[in-house]
Amino acid sequence: MEGIDVDAPGTTQLLMGNEAIARGALEAGLGFTAQYPGTPSSEILSALAAVAKKMNFHAEWSVNEIVAVEAAAGASFAGIPALSAMKQNGVNVASDFLVNLGMTGSGSGGLVLVTGDDPSAISSSNEEDSRWICKWMDMPLLEPSTAQEAKDMTRWAFEVSRIVENACFVRETTRLAHTRGKVVLGDLPKERKTAYFPDVWNMCNPTKSQFTSGPFGILHHKLHERLKKIVPVFEDSEFNEYVGPEKPELLVITSGVCSLYCMEAVTLLGAEDRIGVFKLGTTWPLPEKLLRTQLERTQTILFAEEIDAFTEGNVMELAASLWADLKPITFLGKRSGHIPSWGAVSTDMMATTMAGILNVEYSSAGRTAAYDEGLSTAAKMVPPRAINLCPGCPHRGTYWSIKNALTIDGRHGLVAGDIGCYSLGFIGAGFFQERTMHCMGAGIGVANGLGNLREFGFDQPVLALAGDSTFYHACIPAMVNGVYNRSNFIFVIVDNSATAMTGFQPHPGVGRAATGEPAPIVDMEALCRALGARVEVCDPFDIERTTSMLLSLMADEGGGARVLIMRRICELVRARRDKSRPYTMRVNPDLCAGDACGCNRLCIRLFGCPGLIWDQETGRAQIDEAICTGCGLCADICPQKAIEREAA
Questions:
Q1: pLDDT of the residue at 538
Q2: pLDDT under 50 in the chain at which residues?
Q3: Are 534 and 549 in contact (CB under 8 A)?
Q4: What is the pLDDT of residue 422?
Q5: Number of alpha carbons in the 13 Å side-chain half-sphere of residue 327
Q6: Nearest-angstrom CA–CA distance, 475 and 351
Q7: Full 3-state SS string of 306-324
Q8: Which pLDDT value is given to residue 218?
Q9: β-pairing verdict for 414-416 and 462-467
Q10: Alpha-carbon span 539 to 548, nearest angstrom
Q11: Distance between CA 482 and CA 474 in Å, rounded?
Q12: Residue-level pLDDT at 213
């Protein structure tokens, strides 16, 4: 497979949805891209950064989404096509700037914002539908259903942005982002644009800049006027398509990847002559004339979309304004309970729903009883696996020391957590130590409040915990606030030198830029000290020293906001650089007492590293050599010293 930069128009390539979006941006003449990693959208910038130097455009991992969008908008102000991608949570982070950007417009370059929504919250702290924000901010929204459309719509989105003089959103969901499909490539532009900010001060004719949103509200009418420009374009868009009979018994209005599920479901039911499917690619604003034609086709309409009833509500709102000209229509979807208002949609779900509406028989994907029996047998052969931290993960050592220190301290201390790999601290993988978890940076924010309750008799130790990438993304303002307001908490930064949860992207603390070039290191230790905090650094695999340091920090009750940096590189990153294992691990069968130890299988049941297993035949712990990374940490937690390590 060629890279996304292959200059071979008309050829067909196999691209992931995110790669297709990146290719579409290249075909649109992309000059600037900025992003903070967030699954399912992370691979967009990864793909672009890999070719940025060769194709001579700027690509960066920004510290958070609002900075990324602001930077991309700056490029667009100067006439350079710019793109910023994020997950649904990132749209929340960027929304403060976006609301103001809608008032001023995005300039002549063209600004495309990709939001990767995550139905079922597969890799997110929440399930959220970002489309409402687009409607709220009066920004156009496109929803591709295939990798081909992801490429084509992204390319077109730059044109849409220039027409409305505002940002244009492209919404993908997890399955499109990470599924590969055939993509026919278009031309790559050969001309390079020159950057120039046009709205400079003119001494002879001084005027207010167009890129400032004040005075309050005076530009709001322009926002609505700009959006109206795109409606006629959306009416004729090739991305809106109807397939089915002229007068179907059931019309399905759908968007995004759900359109594929609907088409497949119709085929499985053999109902091509009874069901029509209208795929809406231009989700907002609605192409009202085109939709009116669809509403006139039938008296029963089913909506299929992920996650909220966004299109469903908007179309019903349109139908209400046309009620005098339409026959009575029965609307089915999330409001009626035919489609769930959470989680991912599937082909089987759509086929079952359609069969129920048409009163026809449907066997799940045509599966036989023998198939279902075989599937059940196969499922029993797969051993149960709990959600866990990776073998050799330094966070396991951090949480073990926190657990020990809080127990020894005895004042019922707590950990205000954050979202990342270390979020597993709220379950058994982190010994249930994380007691709060919300958005990025919320842990230290919550700790600010808890740490200022002394006058109410509050004396529980408060620990806030976040990763190194999250520190740069969202924790610095709360750290400043904690020092300024003398809040009493310990900020534990688990520094594993990577944005590990989303694919090991670099950040300001690792000395490498998105393109792989060397970059200055923003020293978190020096930064926290400059703020006036006491700062200590520990190795999470040194359990004895870490536990002692935590107890010392908890005893320093007048110290205000204190920082403990737990510094050890992510094991997956280390293993890529160094294939050897630090230690060779073994369980000494003469020392392991098994169930007679009295520890109640501490190593297997509580410590829970996947590299430790229980041998049913011998009744002893054992090292799984295929999984063990040789970190050596488990040797320190065995009360019998039966787990032994030897330098490799």
A1: 96
A2: 216
A3: no
A4: 84
A5: 10
A6: 46
A7: CCCCHHHHHHHHHHHHCHH
A8: 64
A9: parallel
A10: 12
A11: 14
A12: 62
Closest to 504 measured CA to CA, from 440, 437, 577, 439: 577
**DSSP conformation class of 195:** P
Round to whole Å and give the CA distance between 476 and 481: 9
Q: What is the pLDDT of residue 20?
A: 96
Distance CA 621, CA 614 (A): 5
Domains 238-366 and 394-577 agree in fold: yes
Q: Which pLDDT score is estimated for 206?
A: 66
Structure tokens at 315: 């179309």
**CA 503/CA 495 separation, integer angstroms:** 15
Helix/strand/coil percent split, the chain, to 5? 40, 20, 40
DSSP tag of 340: -
Fold entry, domain 12-192+213-229: Rossmann fold (3.40.50)
CATH topology (fold) of 583-647:
Alpha-Beta Plaits (3.30.70)
Is 577 exposed, middle or buried (CB count within 10 Å of its CB: 0-12, 13-18, 19+)? exposed
What is the end-to-end Cα distance of the chain in Å, rounded? 39
Q: What pLDDT is recorded for position 201? A: 65
- SS3 annotation, 539-562: CCCCHHHHHHHHHHHHHCCCCCEE
User: How far apart, in whole angstroms, are the C-alpha atoms of residue 46 and residue 44?
Assistant: 5
The 8-class DSSP code of residue 326 comes to: S
Spatial distance between the Cα atoms of 63 and 320, rounded to a whole number of angstroms: 45
In what order do the strands lie in the sheet containing 434-436? 434-436, 414-416, 462-467, 489-495, 561-567, 534-538
At the top level of CATH, which class does the domain 238-366 belong to? alpha beta
Rounded to whole angstroms, the Cα distance separating 332 from 339 reads 8
Angle ∠(64,33,12) on CA atoms, nearest 5: 125
CA distance 289 to 303: 18
Instruction: Parse the chain into domains and list their residue ranges.
Output: 12-192+213-229, 238-366, 394-577, 583-647
Rounded Cα gap, residues 478 and 480, in angstroms: 5
Q: What CATH number should be reported for the domain whose range is 394-577?
A: 3.40.50.970
Do 505 and 46 touch, CB atoms closer than 8 A?
yes
